[in-house]
Amino acid sequence: MKKFGFLVLLFVFGLVFPGYSHAATDTKIILDGKEIVQPSDTKAEIINSKVMVPIRVVSENLGYSVEWKQQTQTVTISKDNTAMQMIVGQKTATVNGSNVNLDAPPLVKNGTTLVPLRFIGEEMGLKVGWNNTTKTVTLVTQNSGSGNGTTTPPNSGNEGGGSDQEGLVLVNGISFSDNRFMIATSGSTKPNVFTMTGPDRIVIDLPNTAFADSFSEGQALDSNQNGQLVVSGYPDVSKIRYSLYSNSPSTIRFVIDLSSSKGYSVQNDSGLVMINLDNQSGTPAPPVGNNGKKVVVIDAGHGDQDPGAIGVTGKREKDFNLAMALKVEALLKKESKIDVVLTRSDDTFLALKERVKIAQDIKADIFISIHANSGPAAANGVETFYTRSNSKALATVMHKYLLQSSGLKDRGVKTASLHVTRETTMPAVLLEGGFLSNKSDEAALFTESFQKSVAKGIVAGIKEYLGIK
Fold it and tell me: At what angle do helices 392-406 and 448-466 cross, to 10 degrees?
């Protein structure tokens, strides 16, 4: 099980086998403005377009203890209340006792364990930057006050737009749900939005912006920095195209292709541009959260190239998560006192930090992430996770209804350091709807009756917590 949608922020990495592409570079690591001395025979390097770093070098510079057990090929990193464990050759890591599925296992080179750079950034609370020209990694601790940490570790195949981003606002990701097009950025930008005809379309130009290196993880981006997001289930929109429209100034253009002329409103907060297509008149509509309604963000874990856990019969967690999110959304739309926003409404990729950013920027009242679990074949049941103390009450209420509506075994309410429940500031929980690795649970999870029942339970829990009759 990808306990916290963890793969959306992990870089895919692999073992070095004969014939496997392996390109070493003189990559530097700068921690809080100072270069870290790396072993001469095993430095940070790009392997199959992903940055891999020696875990001991970074960990010990941050005050973590690192233990290596040769017999079991296990590396354990610990500090205070955080403990992370990875095993060479295995695709499951643990963070504070919670399983995290990885796309590929850690590797050992010249006696040194290499792990994805993003793993370090996420689990050690660092801001991670990348300069594709100098091949330099920058790590900034949250309280150091240095660096900007605005870019993410690279996919080195995306040279365009990633080589010179200094001074530009980065476009990290996009999402379309509930007739709202959302653009997540690293800072403030002033969108120029206008309509065109023949055919009808809405154009959004973002001056002084560039695609973040991480953008191509979630969306197609060709060598000329063009791509498109296919939209399904919304008759007003067929697709959304995007491109690096101008180099001087660097401008990213998004084009929403419409079936007919349609009104819209624009909400622009620092880090989030939202185009709301549900406003037929074209006059400004109250932004989400400013209309007196409670704002609920429903997060369907995983998506696109990140399938999440794979069930005993091959069913994919990402499909269950999305089906559940859409059913919950449909029910919440009937509630006059609630405004619901999905982080994703189709099979697209969204990084964990972008899911958090959506909730933060629209000032959501609560955040609920939907997942399914994985583990030993005998493991079964539902559980609810939270991180911060202000989320405990929400977790208690939501678990009560999750348990009742699912009819599965009670595995309890638990605390864990999960990105989406840790980095949000509003009450946030992660719901585990059952174990895909358990034959009985998996069979139940993909039935309409189970999903409808649990969706109703989730909505009932939301309404009780928010005090809505």
Answer: 150
Question: Is-contact 433 454, C-beta < 8 A?
Answer: yes
Rounded Cα distance, 448 and 437, in Å? 19
Helix (H, G, I), strand (E, B) or coil at 271: coil
Helix (H) or strand (E) holding 215: helix 215-218
Q: pLDDT tens, position by position, for the chain (469 residues)?
A: 433 333 323 322 222 222 333 334 467 788 777 777 777 776 777 766 567 777 777 777 777 777 778 788 888 887 766 778 888 877 777 877 676 665 556 788 877 787 777 666 666 766 666 666 677 777 776 443 333 333 333 333 333 333 345 578 888 888 888 788 989 888 888 898 888 777 888 989 998 899 888 777 667 778 778 888 888 778 888 889 999 887 778 889 999 998 888 888 888 876 789 898 876 544 444 556 556 789 999 999 988 778 888 899 999 999 999 999 999 999 998 998 998 988 888 787 778 888 888 888 888 999 999 999 988 889 999 999 999 999 999 999 999 999 999 999 999 999 988 899 999 999 999 999 999 999 999 999 999 999 999 999 999 999 999 999 8
Q: How many residues does the chain have?
A: 469
Q: Which amino acid is at 412?
A: G
Which residues are catalytically annotated?
A: 432
**Cis peptide preceding 106, ω within 30 of 0:** no
